[in-house]
Amino acid sequence: MMLSTENMQNPHPHYHQTFAGCLELELDDPNATERWAAELLRECATAISENDSGKLHHLLWMLNELASPYGDCEQKLASYFLQALFCKATELGEHCYKTSLAVAERWRSFESTRKVILKFQEASPWTTFGHVASNGAILEAFEGEAKLHIIDISNTYCTQWPTLLEALATRNDDTPHLRLTVVATVGMGGSVMDEIGQRMEKFARLMGVPFEFRVIRNLTRLDELKYEEFGLREGEAVAVNCVGALRRVSVQERDAFLGMLSRLLPRVVTVVEEEADFTSCKGEFVSCFEECLRFYTMYFEMLEESFAPTSNERLALERECSKSIVSVLACDGHETGDCERREKGRQWCQRLMESFSPSSFSDDVVDDLKALLRRYRPGWSLVPAEGDASGLYLTWKQEPAVWACAWKP
Amino acid sequence: MAGEAISSSNPPPAKKKRSLPGTPDPEAEVIALSPKTLLATNRFLCEICGKGFQRDQNLQLHRRGHNLPWKLRQRTSKEPRKRVYVCPEKSCVHHHPSRALGDLTGIKKHFCRKHGEKKWKCDKCSKRYAVQSDCKAHSKTCGTREYRCDCGAVFSRRDSFITHRAFCDALAEETARVAASNMSRLTSICNGNFSFTSDLMRSNIANNFSGAISNTTMTEAEMVGHARRELSLWMGEGDHTENLSKRNDLLNPHQSKPLSTDDLFGNPFASRYPNQLSSIYSDELTSNALPTSRMKETENPQSLLLSVPSRSSTQHQHQHQQMAMTPDVSATALLQKAALIGLNASCATPLSCFETKSQECNFRFLSNSSLLDVNHSSLATLSGNTMDNSTLPNPLTRVYPTRHLMIQKDDEPGGETRDFLGVDAPTICASSWNGWV
Lengths: 409, 437
What we know:
heterodimer, B: mainly alpha, two-stranded parallel ribbon, transcription regulation (chain B), Znf_C2H2_type (chain B), metal-binding (chain B), zinc ion binding (chain B)
């Protein structure tokens, strides 16, 4: 549904009055104002799906007035979702996404990436949860092995590995040799990975762990990854670490991708994903929107409570989300760059069951995770998966946020 | 020392001197207990009712309660012979009677720690221990300890400290700094005599270690690893065609024999424990060969220490002691590993490398090093230097202002290509050396 820009300047007076009236009424009710962004955004999404251009104009105008990426949680959500809804309405999703990618690339640097991610890990267990669980499973699977090869397909820029290197150095009497192959898609900034690689090498030297580092780059998307690229060697034990990775594979390629991974004959595959479902609702805009809003509301609130109010790092993390939201809501599936369609743990389990079987985390790992959560602010807890799903959930205020699971052949 | 302990059987000496662990009195009786016995918690059994106790004192207290006739009340005559205990684990260094431990509790703890299962876990950080008392002791300090990185950041959590350290610029700078300071040592070394060298290198190592230490978390192995790394990086550097002539006279003469790796590194343990020297590099070194107390020895040469960058100078003493007392990990194991790895990495012919490398202990060298290429981005932010011929902003003037100031003190005329020591002739070397101290 195309919107002309003239209409934006002069919203239909009738609707204007109506909505203004509605808004005033809402403002009197304290409960209603708390989630004003959700209400407006929902109306907007409905308007889009119903092709109601007049109403849509209005809502977009109002949201534009109220939204701000520098305000409170509601204003932020309004801002980022407004952008996505606008793109959807004007069919500019692909263009917007590409532009965001280009801008992000331009401003990305080792220092800024490092700062943001390390600060995030200080403030919240969102990523460290997955790291601790995965490292625990990997170390246990590698017990007794002398030549290790970890294939790392993740979005945390190798921040998972220093603690693993330290554990390798101190836990065993004979330190094994570790090869780390990192898969970096184009969107991950080539020069940043080089710098990271050098730091990893230095650190491994410091720890006294024989170490080899390699980056597989020049992949537009993860689906392009082929078995041959990994360069497996004889006698080495392989582990595949997928943190925030599987969701970046195109939906229709996911099963094939997992099949490819199983051909690597890994001792363990560790999977960490955010708990949201943007995949099964792909065809239905409104349900997709609802799920998106639910997840990002939780995420933004979590960020707000974890960081200081004026944190630049939090701002950077929020901005990262805008790309995902645009991609999910306004792009059609011929995605350039990384896909962002998350699936829930249960769904991933179904896919993974085709090629792997679940391996539960040991009591030691669970203890480590509990100890980890104790070091952060309250609100976080650990919940084991139930029913047909396996793995562990990190929950924020009782809502599942991140899912971690280990698999073996 | 050992003799004292056995001869004083009547009035106990005012203070029993503690011998080194695992160097027992040669006349003591050697006891080898089984693993089962060592792990058992209730070894002391009452012969009357069969109740078990962890300590002999507790058993005796209990026995009094049985109202035994006086004769039997005395303990079965304790052998006056001192007992020492060996570890049943064959691969352990304490397995051999010459390295037996003198105390029953000691051998039990040793066996649990080294060869036992780690059943006890800290609540806060879930670190695991085999001996309950170790775990309790750890719990007291867990979470209260602070980890400080060279860059100034402080952490209360070990995992965030480790992650930070891996990505910290201080790690990269440190490599540059240590490489540079090693350079300066070397030019003077080649000038002076070698006995001074080994002490100097030892103190150099201590310097670099202390600079790298942050509140006990940097272990000895890391430091040795550091030093070895520096040398290997050094060795691996490319050619330098600048101004060899100035430096050649410093370097060429007096080389009666090639410097061994030990001399260069100033193996801290070399002169102290000649027997142990080979063990550091040998494969059969077991985890107990280098108890941490030995690191204390390196505190002595501090009087010889050259002044180092101001930011670490105040921390030497304190950090040495801390480092010696509480290594965070199995330091001996790490040390062993680092030694083995470092040996493989380091160059076989150190001398030839020095001749080409260390001509000017100066920034041009560093600016050409591939190591620093990595850090150009951070170097670029550093302030420019006063050296005309440097192509890069000199990291060292920025990081070590005091060092640079000392160079200026020497009042060199026309200081275009100043080297580290602000000299360009061997004779002045000694005085500017003093200028350092």
